[in-house]
């Protein structure tokens, strides 16, 4: 069994709000760990009758609290990335990314450069949109820290992105009925679908604003 498999096995036996928060903090930091194996299984357990949970040794948990504690964990991990980036600076962060330990964390200077380029292109809102993009989600807090983005704005956009992402994962947990292989297989497609949905909502309100503005004129 791999390290991730061992963690998943431990998590299945110790599923509670504290473990959800801790694992989502790990997922949101530079340590590679998929959020798809944290929130969906918990949401699936939350949807089971109490009699079933007692028979399997699990305790009742609430899906709303799963989302809230998962979001709290994601923010903790993001703040760690942000703080380390401010404290250590670009040179040390990039040296760490190219070190053996950095490679064990699946980091590289190329990945950091891609995250920084994305941050420069999108600006502060990238900390929100980046939460839905595989390969960027865990790293977007690093360029935010390197650029010393306003901390209040950083917290707001991080919370909003993490909250929406966790809501989607919780919904997937109900629909997929705990099938982690299916969730991981289509996680990229899920991210793309969320971005398209967000784009459609933004476009809708933009068109409404333009129509109201033209009527006033």
Explain what this protein looks like in three dimensions.
The radius of gyration is 19 Å and the shape is flat. It has helices spanning 3-13, 17-28, 39-46, 50-56, 63-97, 100-104, 109-122, 126-129, 141-146, 151-175, 180-185, 187-216. The longest helix is centred in the middle third of the chain and has 35 residues, at 63-97. It has 12 helices and no strands. The relative contact order is 0.13. The termini are far apart. It has 217 residues and is an all-alpha fold. Helix content is 75%, strand content 0%. It has one domain (3-216). Helix 2 (17-28) runs parallel beside helix 5 (63-97).
Number of domains: 1
Radius of gyration: 19 Å
Helix content: over 70%
Order of helices and strands: HHHHHHHHHHHH
Total number of helices: 12
Q: What is the terminal-to-terminal distance?
A: 66 Å
Main sheet attributes: strand count, strand direction, barrel closure? none
Percent of residues in beta strands: under 5%
Unreliable stretches covering 5 or more consecutive residues = none
């Amino acid at each position: 069994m791999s390290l991730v498999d061992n963690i998943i096995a431990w998590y299945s036996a110790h599923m509670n709000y504290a473990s959800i928060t801790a694992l989502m903090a790990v997922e949101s930091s530079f340590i590679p760990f998929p959020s798809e194996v944290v929130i969906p299984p918990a949401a699936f357990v939350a949807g089971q009758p109490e009699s079933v949970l007692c028979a399997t040794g699990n305790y009742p948990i609430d899906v709303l609290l799963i989302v809230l504690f998962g979001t709290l964990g994601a923010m903790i991990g993001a703040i760690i990335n942000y703080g380390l980036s401010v404290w250590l600076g670009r040179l040390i962060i990039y040296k760490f990314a190219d070190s053996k330990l950095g490679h064990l964390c699946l980091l590289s200077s190329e990945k950091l450069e891609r995250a920084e380029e994305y941050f420069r292109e999108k600006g502060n809102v990238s900390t929100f949109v980046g939460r839905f993009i595989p390969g960027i989600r865990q790293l977007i807090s690093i360029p935010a820290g390197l650029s010393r983005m306003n901390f209040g704005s950083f917290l707001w956009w991080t919370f909003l992105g993490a909250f929406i992402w966790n809501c989607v994962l919780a919904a997937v947990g109900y629909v997929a009925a705990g099938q982690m292989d299916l969730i991981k297989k289509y996680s990229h497609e899920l991210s793309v679908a969320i971005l398209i949905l967000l784009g459609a909502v933004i476009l809708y309100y933009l068109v409404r604003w333009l129509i109201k503005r033209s009527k006033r004129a």
